[in-house]
């Protein structure tokens, strides 16, 4: 049975004189893997704050995991909605270990004072292992690279076992390999049943990994549907300051050679071209 985990109806949000959301409605089902995409200022972060129970509505309704999110009720779902911030937001000038960061993620600032029980260590170990940081409990956060800090931010949220996971700009400060590694971890979480929302202004990795695109522009949802049609709609992307992946642009130029237009990765292109070449060679042998 399909279960709705996020239901936003006619949401209007403004900051001073600027309208951030203009009557937005959005429904997300359990197990969805959604890319919430758009340029800076489009309204992506505002939607995040509504789902996380931190936003203030002028109009409309927000229901998350069956709970109406109104003034004073956001705390009731925050342990069920995990939020992974941009990597620069987990930097610390204070000496802090990986263990400290994960305990803060699990218990808040009181986590630094809490005496962990055996169960806590098991949860922490499992989270670190899931993100590929097993055995680094005592490592100094300041000494970690950006990719490791992003993994650590994710691990600290996973200790809460959230039903919904929101990842804010996972490509920021990451090189291509780091970004791919993070998305592979996120993909495994989704395959294990976690509903995942990726907030990003970049279309390339969202096109590869997420199944559904929600594109925002100037506080409005201008597209909500499967990723493939959005990927191939050059006019939609251009109008909303989004750049089609280079490999997808190449696929469009090769359409006459029976190359599909929804290719988003080099591996996909290689597989398609290999099949086309093999078929042509077999035809010649015949």
Classify the beta-strand content into a percent band.
15-25%
Overall mean pLDDT score?
Answer: 84
The CA-CA distance between the termini, in Å, is: 50 Å
Please report the number of helical segments. Answer: 10
The CATH architecture name of the largest domain reads 3-Layer(aba) Sandwich
Rg calc: 21 Å
Order of helices and strands: EEEHEEEHHHEHEHEEHHHH
What is the 3D shape?
A: globular
Give the full name of the CATH homologous superfamily of the largest domain: P-loop containing nucleotide triphosphate hydrolases
Which CATH top level class of the largest domain fits?
A: Alpha Beta
- Percent in helix: 25-40%
| Overall number of structural domains | 3
Read across the widest sheet, the strand sequence of neighbours is 6-7-8-3-9-10
Note poorly predicted spans: none
- Might you state the CATH topology name of the largest domain? Rossmann fold
Count the strands? 10
What summary fits the major beta sheet?
Answer: 6 strands, mixed
Structural class estimated from helices and strands: alpha/beta
